[in-house]
Fold Aminoacyl-tRNA synthetase class II (D/K/N) domain-containing protein.
Amino acid sequence: MNKLGKRLRIADIKGGPEEGLVRHWVRTASDAESYDQVNAVRDILFLRLFLAVLSKRPARYSALDKAATVGVENGLISTGASVWIEGTIGSSQGSKQKIELNVQKLVVIPNSNEGGESPVNAIPTTEAGSVDWSQDFFGKRAYLTVSGQLNDETYAALSDMIEPELAFADLDDDMACATAYLQYVVKYVLENCKEYMDFFNTWIEKWIINRLSDVVEKNSVQMTYTDAVELLLKAKKKFDFPVKWGCDLQSEHERYITEEAFGGCPVIIRDYPKDIKAFYMRQNDDGKTIAAMDMLVPRVGELIGGSQRERLEYLEELPHAGFGLGFERLVQFATGIDNIRDAVPFPRTPGSAEF
């Protein structure tokens, strides 16, 4: 599995020369020509330190230069546009930035201008000026949530989630980030909460320190949903819930995989059937599965669930991903507590929604 790549801040780049890749959003764009130099330049300014230079040589006027030049002139490359730029990093000749990137490859996603095009004024209203819900798609007041668990969580009062979203990231980056996040948290707990961990190790779960140390030191196992189902079908154990391809894995299945099949090692299952996952998850090319993943850990089962987000034609080159981690499940995993209700950081009872 990929490891989480180290990304440099623009301020930390020393000015090369070296090859570089920048994935960012345009802050400002300008069209400037210099007659004191051989090359006219088209520039895109990043933050206050970074200049991406698209050079135009009369003898070598490439398709890239033409596209980039037209892009700046007609507003395609404008404030807010997402760009993916490869090139050579070097010291800048400009006075307002320290370094510049001489562009060799450029991918541009225009600014969606969602705010300017939002059809707020097109919402049907009654004579009194309120929203006319009878003309809505559902014919009545309705709300959209990407969480199929919301209604159940409302009654269970268990809904704390840590939910990062990653720009310019695919499923491999998502899994690498989730793994690195869990390892960081567990390592921090072991190093900075030793008295508490000794207490848990003595009174709550024997060998919990060894179990958590394995999470930090060992890589997660990665397997597809199809391989996980085959593993469960071959298991010499009777499950309460039958296993077949297309079923949603239950806690007993998840715990068997991570606790027994792989001896307590975290396991990431990927490429789930599209029919059992959320609509916003990216469909794989096979048309049957999606680019989704769940991280399974001992005693808990699923700890993290995430995916690469659904692709649109104009977002194909700039993927994004994210995941959700149940905070109470993380506390339960790190402390060895059996009942997740004992891991809730503050009491939640009827009438206490203000918390």
Summary: The longest strand covers residues 99-109. The CA atoms of residues 56 and 62 lie 8 Å apart.
